[in-house]
Design brief:
One of its GO terms (biological process) is protein ubiquitination. The chain is built from no helices and 21 strands. The relative contact order is 0.09. By secondary structure, the protein is mainly β. The protein folds into two domains: 178 residues, 6 Propeller (Neuraminidase); 83 residues. Strands 1-2-3-4-8 form a five-stranded mixed sheet, with no helix packed on it. The protein starts with 13 loop residues before the first strand and ends in a 6-residue tail after the last strand.
């Protein structure tokens, strides 16, 4: 593989949302969501054949709006959630929904790389995550080790826990917590820890990182100024239960032990962009 040429896949539109097909364990497959204001947006199912070093793909139409976040179900290969923009009464709202791809595409029934996206198929809408009372959706995360029935969403200053029922066609809000403090606080992202029986979630708002216990919806830790500027992303170490990595617009990557949040375990500042 070291001697192979890099494999490049070009998209018709800009994109900033990508997710591995988590429930697929036999193939290397990713979902990519596009951002276009003028045209129907797309979900590209990208299948990497590592033996032959080639990419196969399929394209699905996501007609409801620009995709800002995409997250695949950990239990069902055909199910995923998106956060997307839509215009309502001259206002732009960011909403979230759960979708199912056509059955024949779940396990890699792909077109050749040269086929046109004009053959794109339409997604099946399973349910909306109703954010009418909570504001704009910033992201959706599935319970990592779960059966695909639990997920969280972040809407302005609300952390929302959902149960999917009736074959994922109904989303029931089972619990929530509101971020309170001075100013207009808003969650920007969140990650569900695979440890502690999946009972903990980390969120970011502005320069702060917070931990939550979803059994009680109580805050369990807060790193007030984790970064000098906006926290751009964070993730848990899958092998060490207390370790968390974060990166920010201050061009730093930091590693944290959530048992001792007074200072980062390690800080990297290798270049000037995130």
């Amino acid at each position: 593989m070291e001697d192979d040429a890099p494999v490049i896949y070009g998209l018709e539109f800009q994109a900033r949302a990508l997710s591995p097909q988590t429930a697929e364990t036999d193939a290397i497959r990713f979902l990519v969501g596009t951002q276009s204001l003028k045209y129907d947006n797309q979900i590209h199912i990208i299948d990497f054949d590592d033996e032959n070093n080639i990419i196969n793909k399929n394209v699905l139409l996501h007609q409801v709006g620009e995709i800002w976040n995409i997250s695949a179900s950990p239990a069902d290969k055909g199910v995923f959630a998106t956060c997307y923009n839509k215009t309502s009464d001259s206002k732009v709202m960011t909403c979230a929904a759960v979708w199912r791809m056509p059955k024949e595409l779940e396990s890699g029934n792909h077109e050749s790389p040269d086929d046109s996206s004009s053959n794109a198929q339409i997604l099946e809408l399973l349910c909306h995550l109703d954010n009418t009372a909570h504001g704009n959706m910033a992201g959706v995360e599935w319970e990592p080790m779960g059966d695909g029935k639990k997920l969280i969403s972040l809407a302005d200053n609300h952390l929302l826990l959902w149960d999917l029922q009736q074959s994922s066609t109904k989303a029931v809000l089972s619990n929530s917590v509101t971020l309170e403090g001075k100013g207009q606080l808003k969650f920007t992202l969140g990650k569900w820890s695979p440890h502690h029986n999946c009972s903990q979630i980390a969120t970011a708002n502005d320069t702060a990182i917070r931990g939550w216990d979803i059994r009680t919806m109580n805050q369990i830790y807060c790193i007030e100024n984790a970064h000098g500027q906006l926290v751009r992303d964070l993730d848990f170490n899958p092998n060490k239960q207390y370790y968390l990595a974060s990166c920010g617009d201050d061009c730093k990557v930091k590693f944290w032990d959530t048992r001792n949040i007074n200072e980062a375990v390690k800080t990297l500042e290798e270049h000037s962009h995130w």
